[in-house]
Structure formats: structure tokens, C-alpha cells
Amino acid sequence: LFHELLMHKDSSYYVSLLINAAVCLLAENGQKISPKPLSGEHSLAMKAVRIMNDHYDEHLTLNSIAELLSVSPPYLSHIFSRNVGMTYASYLCQLRLHHAARLLTDSSKAITDICYACGYRNLSHFLRSFKEQYGMTPKEYRHFTTESFPSSNIPSEETSDHYGLVITLEV
Predict the structure, then answer these.
(1) 29-37: long-range contacts at Cβ-Cβ below 8 A with a sequence spacing of 24 or more?
(2) How far is CA 112 from CA 83, 103, 106, in A?
(3) Residue 119 vs residues 56, 123, 137: alpha-carbon distances, Å
(4) For residue 12, what are the contacts with CB-CB under 8 A and spacing of at least 6?
(5) Which tens digits make up the pLDDT trace of 75-122?
(6) Which of 21-30, 31-40, 55-64, 82-91 has the lowest mean pLDDT?
(7) Residue 73 has pLDDT above 90, yes or no
(8) Host H or E run for residue 34
(9) What pTM, to 2 d.p., does this model score?
(10) Angle at 51 between CA 75 and CA 126, to 5 degrees
């Protein structure tokens, strides 16, 4: 994979797919990729991340998570960005898109069903966000990944739930 990364370093969507494949291979072997340990208010940020990871497929808002954690939305936003390194909205979008990409690769579900299963409430917003993140439409992504990675290397749906977003926060 690293050789492929070097060979195609100018193609951002291809590099993104290769990195995703590497993360999936690591996760398949039970390994987690974690950022450096968080300091300060990391406990609050980790609780927010856990809520988002567990409920990404539901209607989540910064206000609803702040209410669950008994803090104000501006405070949660500040703590989240400082400790996670991205905004709440960016994290949630990447989380949902990551799961959508896995479903596109692991299943034959309709793209519309995947959109709603990943927490999106609007198909056009999902399609636009996916293309912005991966450089191709969900249909193109599914075709590219099924052509590039034979189905024998794709984990079954039973094991696909064990894949987490690249950012996994541990205590």
C-alpha cells in the first residue's frame, strides 16, 4: 500500500482510498489508530466523540450533545475543536461519510438507503458531501472500490461494524 501511495501521491482521491484501505486492514487485525493523548478538558471531548460515534446515524446537533453533557453549545464547540482538532460539524460529516464509504464497499444497499442509514436527511447534501470528501460520487466510489479491491478482501457485514473512524479517542 505504501508503494502505491508513493506511486500515486499526486492523485488525492486515490491516496484517500489507499489510506482508507490501510486503516481497514489495521482494524481488521484489531488495531486502533489513535491521536496523541489529549490534555485538559479531554474527558468532555471524548464523551462527545463517543456519543457521535454511537449515534452518527441519528439526528445529532451540537445543541443536543451539549444538553446531554450539561454544558453550553459554545463551550462544547470550543473544547471539541481544541481537543479533537476539527469542528463538531467536520467530525460528524467525516464520521458519516466514512461509514457510508464502508457500506458502499461492503454491501449492495442502494445509495439512497446508505445515505439515510448514515444519518443524512437529504440525499443531495449527502451526494455533494461525498463527492467533496472522496473526489467522486458514491456510485463511482462503489465501482472503483469493487474493481480495485476484489470481494475476497472485503470483510463481511458481520465484521464491518468493528471498523471505527480513523480518529478513535481512548482514555
Answers:
(1) 32/164, 32/168, 32/170, 33/166, 33/168, 34/167, 34/168, 34/169, 34/170, 35/85, 35/167, 35/169
(2) 33, 12, 15
(3) 6, 11, 18
(4) 135
(5) 999 999 988 889 999 999 999 999 999 999 999 999 999 999 999 999
(6) 31-40
(7) yes
(8) none
(9) 0.65
(10) 95
